[in-house]
Structure formats: C-alpha cells, structure tokens
Amino acid sequence: MSIATMRGDGGETGLAGGIRVSKSHNRVEAYGTIDELISSMGFARAICGDEEIRTLTKAIQKELFAVGSAIATPPESPKKPPQIADGWVDALTDHVHRIEAIEGILGDWSIPGEHPASAAYDVARTVCRRAERLAVGLPQHGITVQPNVLRYLNRLSDLLWLIGRLLGRNIHKDDKKTCRDNRGSNHVYITFTFSRSIMFRIDPQNLPFRSLKNLADSLSICLIISVAENTATTPST
Question: Which tens digit of pLDDT belongs to each residue from 26-45?
Fold first, then answer.
C-alpha cells in the first residue's frame, strides 16, 4: 500500500477520525506546525553532543505527537482525542526550573548562532512559539483546544530557549578550560567558525596536523592555523 493515496490532490486532508477538510484549515495549520516542531527538534537532537539533552528531546518529540493529535481530533470524530496530562506540563516546568537555577544562565541573552546545536534549538523554539500562537487562535474560529495543550507549548518554548543557552554556555566553558596562557613559546591556534578560539601548546617540530584535522572534522568546523613564535602576547579568546 502506497502513502501516495492521491486523495489529497484536490487540496483536502483527513482529520483524526476521517473527517475531510481543506489543507488550509486552521486546525490543519496548527497541528501541521506541531509536525514541523517535531522535525526541528529532531534536527537539533541529531547535531547535539549532550546525551542527556538528546534523551530529553526525544521524549518530548514523542509527547508532541499526542499534542498534535489532540489538535487534529475534532469533537465530531468517532476517535477520542488524547488528553494532555498535567504531569507532562509539570515535568517541563521542572526542567525549566532545573536549568534556570544554573548560575549565570538567565544572564545570557546570546544572539542565536554561536554554536550549531544551540542555534538549532533556538530555531525549534521559534517554531514552538508559532505553533502556540496558532493554537491560541483556534478558539477564535470556534475550535476548542485543551488548556494543557497551550500550557505544554508555552512551557516547551521556555525550555527550548534554556537548552540553547545551556549548550552555548557549556561550549564556552569548555573553551575556557582548553585555553592556556603559554607566553614565550610557539603556539598553534584553532579558530572555530562560531567565534571561539582554542589554543594548544605543541612542539613546532612535530605539529600533529592529523590530530587537529580529525578534531575539526569531528566538530564539523573549519580549521584555520596560525603560528606565533616566541611572543609574549597571545590572541584574545
């Protein structure tokens, strides 16, 4: 059986329970944006190196399928919509409180783009906000929305913002750990495309170019090398 049923060629789609509506229907626009959010979070998860955040993201993606289904199920459908539990919202709130308790995290209002994974979660956050706006607007068109659907999306957007800040903070923290002040010696510096610099003190007679290249490849970044010989000044990081 093919997924190309051709039933949607005329611009209609089926809601949960088989009810046919226009693909431009407000309900379709709302749950379609939830689908976009799930995919955006999937991309963010795919490039995120933090296993704890990856696991949390995947769990939220699974819950979002239920959130989308709750929006996609009209009252006249023979299929009952899934109920979005208070516990799901409470769990997101707990994660928000846990991350925002980290010192300095709320003081970071970074411009998105400092780190690939952080930027991807920022994109997912904006999709989540758009999904929330569309869901909030559904009652204006006579469509009832579960209160917990709105609460869930609102809390999730907060969490996605915090995850973006957390990832950026962790990268910056790692950079500081790696940087060393090696005045008076030869240095090789690796400059990252996300405006971070990591400095290594190495033997200029035996430059480990292969190791550096492998590091750059593993991080999917460009590698730029400069050598400073016997200088008392190091590049600012």
Answer: 999 999 999 999 999 999 99
